[in-house]
Amino acid sequence: MYLSTLLLNLKLPRVRRDLSSCSAMHSRVLSGFGLPEKDDPGAEKPTQTLRERLDVLYRVDWTDENQPVLVVQSTDKPDWSTLPQGYLAPMGDNGTNIVIQDLTSQLDAIELHTSIPFRLRANPTRKVPSGLRPGRVSKHPAREFLKTEMDRFQWLQRQAENAGFSLKRNELDEWMVVEHQDGWQRGFSKNDHGEHQQVQQKGVVYEGILQVEDKERFIVAIRKGIGPGKSYGFGLLTLRL
Question: pTM to 2 decimals?
Fold first, then answer.
């Protein structure tokens, strides 16, 4: 797996547009992996999207200086030379505005019961019965953001159990996890009739310490992501190894 870190140029209008629309940023991220081939009317439609086939996950982080940083994980190595001119910020003191890491050796070295600092931008939601959303036409089930911090934390615990890790407590028996509110984001998706409809999602960022309980399931969860909304910048679990 590869992890790309790109420092974006906030002065460029295209960057600001992509940051304001989760669907625009989704398209921008996938441009680093080649555009999908045009549909052949006689060909069988693929069962997976380009993002799913390459296990592409991403999120946008912000530095203390309010600098946007695009973080992208994928099974194939991306080619970011396709980005528009000026999309990346001018090179800083370290002489680079883009870093691509091969995570293979780091992930292979993880041992059972290892404690690791993590960061996760997530979309903690529950499915809403279709009858509660009259007139909604979509191939995706409606989801409702969990309103209380306790509900969201319990959601995270369930995700952790399924993903082969647990959340750590400190010596005072306090959870070593902090939740940061991430606000609403907007974009567009296609419904079952091929029509564009607006999507609106809210996220949170979790930072803390996890413990690996099942390495095989843990590595799969890192590759596949955590929770819903992976096409729109949620689900990427990064580790500080």
Answer: 0.85
Under a CB-based contact definition with an 8 Å cutoff, are residues 11 and 52 in contact? no
Beta bridge partners of 175: 169
Higher pLDDT among residues 131 and 219, named by residue: 219
On whether the 2-35+45-102 domain is CATH 3.30.830.10, my answer is no
Cα separation, 58 vs 55, whole angstroms: 10
Q: How far apart are CA 170 and CA 109, in angstroms?
A: 25
Residue intervals in the chain for CATH 3.30.70.1210: 115-134+142-239
Express each pLDDT in 43-62 by its tens digit: 455 668 899 999 999 999 99
Tell me if residue 18 falls in helix, strand or coil: helix
Angle among Cα 182, 31, 224 to the nearest 5 degrees reads 55
What is the CATH code for 115-134+142-239?
Answer: 3.30.70.1210
